[in-house]
């Protein structure tokens, strides 16, 4: 059997609740609280806001995420390799190998190394703007490139699917490709194999 009780809630709102006969049989210590629904909601809101209030102290633990120093050009270089430098079935194996290496790499900035002004692809390098380190990731060329070795700088145009030489003299994160001085390319002369006397 149910009976109804009316209680005044804060703000002079009358709340009517159904009370079952079983409810009356419970000892007072086991009966549900007689707080109104709105009062319980207010208590819940007060409890939750204290834990979500922003504190004035900053996190002093280890830095888990490092903001990239510059916008990554990874996708630009990947597009350049796929549509310009290593386009076509003939280059598919080399292209896929280099793209896999780029995916594994944590670097934000990459550079393409050309043989000369003809923009003939040789390799892909990682570039760190803070330290100006240029380290070979995959391909043919020196293990590292210093700013003094660089002859020309290039930017990739995704719409035209081609590289354009830029007039800048210094490296930056906005550069997509470089050429190095021609004397730095080692010409490997193949000698004739020596015949061994019998």
From TrEMBL:
The keyword Coiled coil applies. Keywords: Coiled coil, Cytoplasm, Cytoskeleton, Microtubule. Residues 18-64 are annotated as: Disordered. The keyword Nucleotidyltransferase does not apply. Residues 24-36, 48-57 have a biased composition (Low complexity). Pfam families: CAMSAP_CKK. Residues 61-195 form the CKK domain. One of its GO terms (cellular component) is microtubule minus-end. The CKK domain binds microtubules. This is CKK domain-containing protein. It comes from Kryptolebias marmoratus (Mangrove killifish). The lineage of its organism: Eukaryota, Metazoa, Chordata, Craniata, Vertebrata.
């Amino acid at each position: 059997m149910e009976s109804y009780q009316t209680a005044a809630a804060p703000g002079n709102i009358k709340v009517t609740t159904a009370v079952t006969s079983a409810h009356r049989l419970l000892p007072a210590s086991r009966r549900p609280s007689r707080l109104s629904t709105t009062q319980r909601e207010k208590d819940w809101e007060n409890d939750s806001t204290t834990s979500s209030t922003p504190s004035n102290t900053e996190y002093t633990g280890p830095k888990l995420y490092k903001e990239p120093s510059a916008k990554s050009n990874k996708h630009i270089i990947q597009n350049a390799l796929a549509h310009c430098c290593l386009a076509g079935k003939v280059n598919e194996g080399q292209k896929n190998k280099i793209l896999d290496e780029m995916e594994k790499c944590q670097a934000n900035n990459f550079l393409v190394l050309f043989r000369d002004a003809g923009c003939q692809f040789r390799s892909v390098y990682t570039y760190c703007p803070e330290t100006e380190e240029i380290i070979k990731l995959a391909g043919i060329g020196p293990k590292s490139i210093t700013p003094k070795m660089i002859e020309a700088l290039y930017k990739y145009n995704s719409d035209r699917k081609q590289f354009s030489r830029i007039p800048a003299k210094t490296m930056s994160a906005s550069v997509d490709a470089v050429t190095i001085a021609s004397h730095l390319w080692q010409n490997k002369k193949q000698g004739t194999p020596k015949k061994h006397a019998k």
